[in-house]
Amino acid sequence: MSKSSGISSPSTVTIKAIKPVKKELKGYVQFGIDLYRGNPCYVPPLVFDEVGTLDPEKNPAFDFCEAQSFMAYRDGQPAGRITAIINRMLNEKSGKKEARFGFVDFTDDREVTDALFGAAEDWARSRGMEEIVGPMGFSDMDHEGMLVDGFDEMGTMATIYNYPYYPAHVERLGYRKDTDWVEYRIDVPEKVPEKMARIAEIVLKKYELRIVKYTSPKKIKAEYGEALFHLINEAYADLYGYSALTERQIEYYIDMYLNILRLDYVCLIVDKNDSLVGVGITIPSLSEALRKSGGKLLPLGWWHLLCAMKGRNEVVDLMLIAVKPEYQSKGVNSLFFYDLIDVFRRNGAKYAETNPELEDNVHVQAQWQYFDKRQHRRRRAYRKHL
After folding, report:
1. What is the mean predicted confidence (pLDDT) over 325-330?
2. Residue from 158, 175, 157 nearest 166 by CA
3. Three-class DSSP category at 331
4. What 3-state class would DSSP assign to 183?
5. Cis before 193? omega within 30
6. Are 149 and 135 within 8 A, CB to CB?
């Protein structure tokens, strides 16, 4: 039998292929939370959300992806997890035979990581894949990139946190750097920087643009819900590993996210014909609330999350900024901060988390020149030939 069939090796490490049923998926997700219990920097995901992402019956990414999750056990106790993914749509676009690994966590145990990654690689190889890359999810809406610097910094809800021993284990197994992302912590200024304000006012006039704000989730969904995600597809098309969202995924994420956003933290830019040119989505940080909740809504997790989202919050997460390609590098990004800095200050924000941006994306990083900042995290995607 293969390792993925559940047979124990002499080292007492067992690998089990996880069935996509609620009970097994919940145990799989809970292991990732339990491994970091007591760690002050780890931010757990919402269990139901993570289970839904891994469930073929719920996640529309399974329309064009196949996946298999594995758990490692040492003497019968959970010791690691990994999900191997094949995104067929992305492979058709790139011409590659590439698998991904994601949702990966493990104890500091060489035999565990050997068996765990071996199972994922065997699964990918048996399906004709020639390379494996990760940590990556089904699409860019999932967490990606292994933390390689910034282990003493609290994470965000949109990023992976992992122990410092992870990169050493992965590199020992023959994985090499494919790309890096960097993250910044930015001081929110008292007011919009003068130069940025001037640029914003020029851009608004020159390109006949305007800033649109909403107070009704129903209205923003009806007027710009689909357009928003189509814009993300267009703006991110050439970014590393980007998997374009399908219509079913767009419907899924509209229902999932647009109902819960704090809309004063959302900025839309439209042209004179009311066509969407740019979108900036930010939220008050939910990191502390998720830590208090332990990844669960009940009994009081929902209350911690509601307070963090609706109340005053010192930290804001800059979840995403997307600008139509023909308007990129023309100063449109300044409009988001022209609108949002005052919103942040009114609600007590002192710091902003940029979330991951590719290390060579100089156009994105140029927008931070107007702010006091520090680069405080770096994360990496690894690749291995099978």
Report:
1. 93
2. 175
3. coil
4. strand
5. no
6. no
Residues in CB range of 319: below 8 A, 6 or more apart: 158, 281, 282, 283, 355
Long-range contacts of 341-345 (CB under 8 A, 24+ apart): 341/188, 341/189, 341/191, 341/192, 342/191, 342/192, 343/264, 343/265, 344/188, 344/265, 344/282, 344/316, 345/188, 345/190, 345/191
Alpha-carbon Rg for the chain, nearest whole angstrom, is 21
- Residue 6, pLDDT > 80, answer no
Residue 19 identity (one-letter amino acid): K
Structure tokens at 33: 């939370």
In angstroms, rounded to a whole number, what is the distance separating the alpha carbons of residues 354 and 368? Answer: 9
Rounded Cα gap, residues 158 and 287, in angstroms: 9
- Indicate the pTM of the whole model: 0.92
Amino acid letter, 307: C
Q: Which residue, chain included where needed, has tokens 């292994």? A: 146
C-beta of residue 290 within 8 angstroms of C-beta of residue 365: no
| DSSP-H helix ranges across the chain | 22-34, 47-54, 88-94, 110-126, 165-172, 194-206, 217-220, 226-236, 247-257, 287-293, 301-310, 333-346, 362-366
Predicted confidence (pLDDT) at residue 256 exceeds the cutoff of 90? no
Q: Above pLDDT 90, what percent of the chain? A: 92
pLDDT of residue 8: 41
pLDDT for residue 2 is more than 90: no
